[in-house]
Amino acid sequence: MRVVIQDDYTKMCRWAACHIAARIKAHNEGPEKDRPFVLGLPTGSSPIGVYQELIRKNQAGELSFANVVTFNMDEYLGLPHEHDQSYWYFMHDNFFDHLVDMKPENINILNGMTDDPEAECARYEEKIASYGGIDLFMGGIGVDGHLAFNEPYTSLSSRTGVRDLTTDTRIVNSRFFGNDPEKVPARALSVGIGTVTDSREVLVLISGHNKARALAATVEGGVSQKWTCSALQLHNAAIIACDEAACGELTVDTYKYFLDIEKKERL
Questions:
Q1: Which domain, by its residues, includes 36?
Q2: pLDDT, tens digit, for every residue of 45-59?
Q3: What CATH code is carried by the domain that includes residue 260?
């Protein structure tokens, strides 16, 4: 596992965007350029700065998305695309609609209005497999360490499926629903922990004091279903991009180790 510590959220996002851009460019110039680069994407507040930097690079002609296929992590069950809190809406409003060469047919988001959630989840897994898997999956984690909507005690080998959201998650997300947890859907469709860790590379963003405990559990804790983020310890190409504020619960030795080993990556 790599842990790349940046001074603040802005620098963390810039580092992550540069890393993703470099991966896309290397793919498009390499032996597998005839197939698309497959990119997994999250919603939420954590990736917004990354999306803004990727948009800037794309609009400036520095990065093309013409050969990129995307798969989003999750979607609320029961929210139509046009609902301003659906993840379909979020992704188009914050990212896809601003890219000059993103092909609509290459965008994949779980259908929250499906009549058959189980079949929709199976279809999603099959479509990911049809592209040969995901090259890089970017994600964020909750304060309890959940990755996508894989709440604590979700199997670390789980696949895309229906998830029941905890009261805590609904309370946290209620800020987007008029501060009323009852308006937050109680269920969602989500990729599994196994779906994420099957990716060739995983890049997780962790920022802010409120995520400090989760970062420590991800990096220093034991591998456990209690902290689904801890599954990243078993991935041979997992990267944590974090800011200083999120490092408050790391031991001094851990903090110093990653600063030293990653010193060339600090912006």
A1: 2-265
A2: 999 999 999 999 999
A3: 3.40.50.1360
Q: Which residues are catalytic?
A: 74, 144, 146, 151
The whole-angstrom distance between residue 96's C-alpha and the CA centroid of its chain comes to 15
Cα distances (angstroms) measured from residue 212 to each of 86, 104, 177: 28, 37, 26
Q: How far is CA 241 from the centre of its chain?
A: 12
Measured CA distances, 87 to 35, 38, 80, 141, 188 (Å): 27, 19, 9, 16, 11
Pairing of strands 238-243, 187-190: unpaired
Backbone angles phi, psi at 140, to 5 degrees: -130, 170
Structure-model confidence comparison of residues 56 and 186, the more confident one? 56
Query: Can you say whether residue 61 is alpha, beta or left, with left for phi > 0 and alpha for psi between -120 and 50 degrees?
Result: left
H/E element, 67 = none
Neighbours of 185 (CB within 10 A): 18
pLDDT at 5: 97
Please answer whether residues 64 and 54 qualify as being in contact, where contact means their C-beta atoms are separated by less than 8 angstroms. no
Residues 201-239: tens digit of each pLDDT = 999 999 999 999 999 999 999 999 999 999 999 999 999
Contact 25, 63 (CB under 8 A): yes
Report the predicted TM-score, pTM, of the whole model to 2 decimal places.
0.94
CB 52 within 8 A of CB 15: no
Residue 50 main-chain phi, psi, to 5 deg: -65, -45
Strands of the sheet containing 187-190, edge to edge, are 74-76, 187-190, 161-164
Number of domain units in the chain? 1
Please name the residue that has the structure tokens 């990556």.
Answer: 265
Q: What is the pLDDT of residue 166?
A: 85
